[in-house]
Design brief:
- This protein is α/β, with parallel strands linked by helices and 332 residues long.
- Helix content is 23%, strand content 34%.
- It has 9 helices and 17 strands.
- Strand 5 and strand 6 form a beta hairpin.
């Protein structure tokens, strides 16, 4: 059965495997294949693989001895895993239930299967879920709560109370690898901390702000879980009301609210210090994915020289629409 695989020369195989494993992208149900000096590493989500890697589709064998959902069903179902929770997106309730039962009956380390019951909605960016199947294990925590591991960090989160996308792991790593010790950083829409925690681990002092009180509770818990609580300040509230308290302080700002980040640019400018890197996320038509964001930033940052350091496509978002990031240096 054809599976998405990262294709690399054999000599780059281990380094690539480690990078994909750190991003929680390795497909553990299928074997790595070697063919004439080339390695094919099966991945769970081809859209989340960094652009530097080549993704191809080819037949790869399932691991011997591991009973997979595909073995049970006779076809390869679409699902993703977040910690010990599996997520499907099926409109047909009978098909959803059949897939869920197969996932639970397989050898995957999954304790619950959820189906998306709504789109992301509201100011808190959460969605509804339908619980399709459970193992009955670990009754002391909510069915929708799990621990996601990414690039060596652990994130406790409840899918029914917070927004989280595992597909952005590679992008988060790209940004946080740029952070230097001693920086003062602000994540304006911090969620449970997937930008905040790695930045703090690189010895930056980080302020994370989010409107969702549950997200802030998890952010604080995750800062403790990952040993960086002494460098993290978590604030529940609207960043537009918080910005003045941290005016002129930020060396780096993350604005990962792509549908409406432009509405918060005045607050970002308030936060920015004399020399600040802004990571601005946007969703735009493929014909001009970067232009509207660049124009909005220049219009807001009139007291700064604006230098676009990188124009980066994160992923395809919808037909003819791209999720992009602008890395922008603001120099007063």
């Amino acid at each position: 059965m054809e599976r998405p695989c990262v294709r690399v020369p054999r000599e780059a195989g281990e380094e690539t495997r480690q990078a994909l494993a750190a991003a929680a992208l390795i497909d553990e149900e299928h074997e790595i294949v070697v063919d004439e000096g080339t390695l094919y590493l099966p991945v769970t989500d081809p859209d989340a693989v960094a652009a530097e890697y080549e993704v191809v589709y080819r037949d790869v064998p399932a691991h011997d001895g591991q009973r997979t959902p595909a073995d049970i069903l006779g076809f390869d179902p679409s699902y993703e895993r977040l910690g010990d929770v599996a997520i499907v997106d099926e409109d047909d309730p009978d098909r959803a239930a059949t897939i869920a039962d197969a996932i639970i009956d397989s050898d995957l380390p999954v304790r619950a299967v959820l189906n998306r019951a709504s789109k992301v909605k509201g100011e808190l960016r959460i969605r509804d879920w339908t619980v399709l199947a459970t193992t009955g294990d670990d009754r002391d925590r909510p069915i929708t709560e799990t621990v996601h591991r990414e690039y060596g960090y652990e994130y406790l989160l409840d899918l029914s109370r917070v927004y989280f996308s595992p597909r952005l792991a590679t992008e988060r790593h790209r940004v946080t690898e740029q952070v230097a010790a001693g920086e003062h950083a602000v994540d304006m829409f911090a969620g449970v901390g997937p930008f905040v925690i790695p930045m703090a681990d690189r010895e930056a002092t980080v302020v994370g702000v989010d409107l969702n009180p549950a997200a802030i509770d998890y952010l604080r818990a995750n800062a403790r879980r990952n040993g960086v609580a002494d460098r993290v300040t978590a604030i529940q509230g609207d960043v537009r009301e918080v910005a003045a308290d941290y005016a002129d302080s930020a060396d780096r700002i993350v604005m990962n609210l792509p549908h409406s980040a432009d509405a918060f640019l005045d607050s970002a400018v308030t936060l920015a210090g004399d020399d600040c890197v802004l990571h601005y996320y946007d969703i735009q038509h493929e014909d001009d994915p970067f232009g509207p964001g660049e124009q909005a930033i220049r219009a807001a940052a009139t007291d700064y020289d604006v230098e676009i350091e990188a124009r980066h496509v994160v992923r395809s978002y919808a037909p003819h629409e791209l999720n992009v990031c602008l890395d922008v240096r603001l120099s007063r």
